[in-house]
Amino acid sequence: KVIFINKENIMEDKLLSLAQIKERLKDRRMNTIAKSLGLKYETIAQFSKANANPRYKTLLLISNYLEDNK
């Protein structure tokens, strides 16, 4: 769980861990997810590898997508 605080509001992001994302991607079509998020297939495919090191924004996008599309 990540919390952002600024003068106007408080935003709370609930992120899946890399292990959770990897598990949830097992039965998904990564091309479909990539197109839906405007990302390259390779960006999504990196999560199935042990050495994934995504940017925070990418992690947040994929995490939110997987949470919204269970």
Describe what this molecule looks like in 3D.
The protein is 49% helix and 11% strand. It is built from four helices and two strands. A two-stranded antiparallel ribbon has the order 1-2. It is globular, with a radius of gyration of 13 Å.
Brief characterization of the structure:
This protein has 70 residues and is mainly alpha-helical. The chain is 49% helix and 11% strand.
Helical proportion?
40-55%
- Rg for CA atoms: 13 Å
Write down the secondary-structure element order: EEHHHH
Largest sheet, described in full? 2 strands, antiparallel
Mean pLDDT across the residues is 81
Structural class: mainly alpha
Content of β-strand: 5-15%
Q: How many strand elements?
A: 2
Terminal residue distance? 19 Å
Task: Indicate the topology.
Layout (H helix, E strand, L loop, with lengths): L1 E4 L4 E4 L4 H8 L4 H8 L3 H5 L10 H13 L2
Antiparallel strand pairs: 1-2
Helix pairs in contact: 1-4
Give descriptors for this structure.
single chain, 2 strands, disordered N terminus, mainly alpha, two-stranded antiparallel ribbon, 70 residues
